[in-house]
Amino acid sequence: MYAIMRSGGKQYRVSTDDVITVERLPGAPGSLVEFGEVLMIGDGKAATLGTPLLEGAVVTATILEQTRADKVLVFKKKRRQNYRRLRGHRQAGTVLRIDEVLMPGASRKPRKTVETPKPAVAKAEQKAPAKPVAEKKAPEKKAEAKPAPKAAAKKPAAKKKAAPQKTTAKKPAAKKKATPKKKATAKKK
Known about the structure:
- The chain has 189 residues and is mostly beta strands.
- The chain has a domain at 2-105.
- The chain is built from 1 helix and 10 strands.
- Mean pLDDT is 81; it is low at 113-119.
C-alpha cells in the first residue's frame, strides 16, 4: 500500500518502511510525526483519491535525524560593472522512516518505543551535585603553602646615543646655457 502525502509544499509517494528526506520538521530523533495531508492512497489495484485531501487518512513516521543538504552556491554577476557576489546555502531537512499508512477509519498498530540517547551535557549536569548556597565556608589558609617565586626584575632598556647629524651644504642651481637666438628671415614675395 502506498500514499501520496504533502509536507513542506511538496508531495511524496511513500509506503511502509520507506526512508525519505523532507523539509525540516520540529522534533528530536526518535519522535513520532503524523501527516494528515494525504492526497491519495493506493494498493496497486485500486486507488482512493481525495478532493483534495482524504478525510481521516494518516501517514505516521519516525524522525531518524535532522540534517542539512549539500551546499548550493549562488553566484551573481553583472558584466562590466565589477559586481560579483558569492553566497552559499544549506537547506535544513529531516530524515523520516514511514511506519504505517492508514486508510480512513483504520485502526493503528501499537508503536514500538525507541529510547534515544540523551545528550552528554544533560548527563554531566545530573551527575554534578548541586551545592547548597547556605553552607558557604571561608577558605582555609594553608600554613605550609609556599609563596610563588617572583620573576626577576627586568633591566631597563639601554639608552640609544643620538647619531651625529650630518649637515650638507646646498649646491647652487646649475646655470642654464644661453641658446643662440635665431635670426629672423624675411619672406620673399
